[in-house]
Design brief:
The complex is a heterodimer of chains A (about 270) and B (about 280). Chain A has about 270 residues and is an alpha/beta fold. Helices cover about 35% and strands about 25% of the residues of chain A. The chains are: A alpha/beta (about 270), B mainly alpha (about 280).
């Protein structure tokens, strides 16, 4: 891989099939414009397998645009995005197959049951009915919603819906999980539960996670961090390193310093 | 640049069975959603029935229908407009699925579909087939009620009309899909009503035979002749009486192909119209 990716690829994957140097997600020099408005400028970073990478940015920083590009909702205008080496533009099927996504807005069918929602998702991945039901039962048990399998999604709490969406995103056993501000609108406990659940997926199953957020308290010093501001990457690397480099107390202060410097100079800090 | 790639557990590409599973899942979900939205079913039925019970009854004496193919006898006005109303059900259904696609896109459900690893043209075709299947349920429910209103085509007609309904459903569904790719907000659906549904329905052979339109306004006659909806109506009308209208078949088939290709291109991320901006207030 290029030198750009080097700092973030530091953990070895527990899956022996994956070459350790191959990032789960690699974004190289990606820019995107909506007409004259530039939403992303020259964005590059990588997410290692079995790592938790937080994508930190204020509303309007370009996080959702980036997610739309990675999930192939929009075409990549310039640059390259690949998932375990599969270029999203050239071999979308192979790339999408290795990826699970939890979008910012809720994307469940409220009037269908939990199992029906999972079955629909499985069908979209070509997973046959019997296998789908088996996997649905498994993931529901894992998120403690097994006894609610037949109830309508409408009757779940916000936190339960999010857990279901995460379970759904894992149904086809992806190696990379993308979450776009998954804790928005949830109470403190539900937020903590979901964060814990996702972190466990990283350590136990070796899944690479990209977690978009604007909440500093969701980020740990050992995580990888990408700071996105006005469509540009201001910093990327391990959180503790970025805190040291900016001579800040914590992530919040580091973020404030980076964005202030960028705003003052009108361009990203080096 | 490293060329190494990580292979998933499965073989690359998809088997025929997986394509079928996907189609099955999309049609099944659309069916379930339809069953859960009883108001939608009721309103889909009430709309043509209002036309049949009130409008047609009122106009029965005003409009005389001479013997024109495929009819071999004088018919009541209700009998004449029944195929037009069947096509109207499909027109509304096609536009309503387009509305639901705009809604799904704003709300995100559409994304669940579009991040499936199966080819996008295939996903959109499945969605289209699912919408058509729902419209068939509506049309046959209408035919059942119409039967008691003395609109009784030959029994074989109920079978021969099926392929015609599938094709016209696909045409109107793909038109809706094409339109949905161009609509950015849900509110614009009122525009679709005004600029697509009403002109298509009124400038067609659904409510009056075209020879009568020609007497009144030759200009309007040509508009009706070029309206693909007229041909959907005529295809259904002939098929309902066990006959084939080849011109209409060609027009409806051709339009389906063109609209479908247009919709696939419009939803293609690199070319499509949907790339203009994020939806749902996201950034």
């Amino acid at each position: 891989m290029t030198a750009i990716d080097a700092p973030t690829v530091r953990k070895t994957s527990p899956n022996r099939n994956i070459p350790p140097e191959l990032p789960a997600l690699s974004i190289e020099r990606v820019s995107h414009s909506y007409g004259p408005r530039r939403a992303l400028s020259d964005v590059s970073f990588a997410v290692a397998p079995a790592s938790f990478t937080a994508l930190l940015g204020l509303n309007g920083a370009g996080k959702s645009t980036l997610f739309s590009l990675v999930t192939r909702l929009f075409g990549v205008q310039t640059g390259r995005i690949s998932i375990f080496g599969h270029d999203i533009n050239r071999v979308p099927s192979e790339a999408l197959r290795l990826m699970g996504v939890v979008f910012q807005p809720r994307t469940l069918d409220l009037d269908l049951s939990l199992t029906q929602n999972l079955q629909y998702h499985a069908a979209l991945h070509g997973i046959a009915r019997r296998e789908a039901l088996k996997r649905a039962a498994e993931v529901l048990a894992r998120i403690d919603l097994a006894e609610r399998a037949g109830s309508k999604v409408r009757d779940l709490s916000g936190g339960q819906m999010r857990r279901l969406e995460i379970a759904r995103a894992l149904l086809h056993r992806p190696r990379l999980l993308l979450l776009d501000e998954p804790t928005v609108g949830l109470d403190v406990k539900a937020r903590a539960d979901i964060l814990k659940h996702v972190r466990r997926l990283v350590t136990e199953q070796g899944i690479g996670v990209l977690w978009a957020t604007h909440l500093f308290d969701e980020i740990l010093p050992s995580d990888d961090l990408v700071v996105l501001h006005q469509g540009r990457v201001l910093a990327h690397g391990e959180v503790s390193r970025i805190i040291d480099e900016t001579a800040a107390q914590d992530v919040g202060a580091a973020f404030a310093r980076l964005t202030e410097a960028a705003t003052r100079s009108g361009s990203p800090s080096p | 640049m490293s060329t190494a790639v990580f292979k998933s557990e499965q073989r690359p590409g998809f088997s025929f069975a997986q394509y079928l599973t996907c189609l099955n899942g999309i049609v099944w979900r659309e069916g379930l959603r339809f069953l859960h939205q009883r108001e939608r079913f009721v309103s889909a039925l009430v709309r043509p029935l209002v036309w049949l019970f009130i409008f047609a009854a009122g106009f029965r004496q005003v409009l005389g229908i001479s013997i024109i193919p495929p009819y071999d006898t004088y018919i009541l006005y209700e009998v004449y407009i029944a195929p037009g109303l069947m096509a109207m059900i499909q027109l509304f259904n096609g536009m309503q699925s387009s509305l639901s696609m705009v809604y799904d896109r704003e709300m995100g459900n559409m994304r669940t579909l579009l991040v499936s690893p199966l080819p996008r043209w295939y996903l959109l075709s499945c969605k289209l087939l699912a919408g058509t299947a729902v419209s068939l349920l509506q049309v046959y429910a209408f035919l059942l009620i119409a039967y008691f209103w003395e609109i009784a085509p030959p029994p074989i007609g109920y079978l021969t009309v099926l392929p015609a309904l599938v094709l016209s459903g696909l045409m109107l569904g793909s038109l809706g899909m094409l339109i949905s790719s161009g609509i950015r907000q849900l509110e614009n659906f009122a525009g679709v009503m005004n600029f697509v549904i009403f002109p298509m329905f009124f400038a067609s052979s659904a409510l009056y035979p075209l020879w009568r339109v020609k007497e009144g306004s030759p200009m309007l006659y040509y508009v009706c002749e070029f309206n693909p909806f007229s041909h959907a109506v005529e295809l259904i009308r002939f098929a309902l009486y066990g006959q084939m209208n080849w011109v209409s078949l060609a027009v409806v088939g051709g339009c389906t192909t063109v609209f479908m290709i247009g919709a696939v291109l419009a939803y293609d991320p690199s070319r499509g119209l949907i790339r203009r901006g994020p939806g749902g207030g996201e950034t």
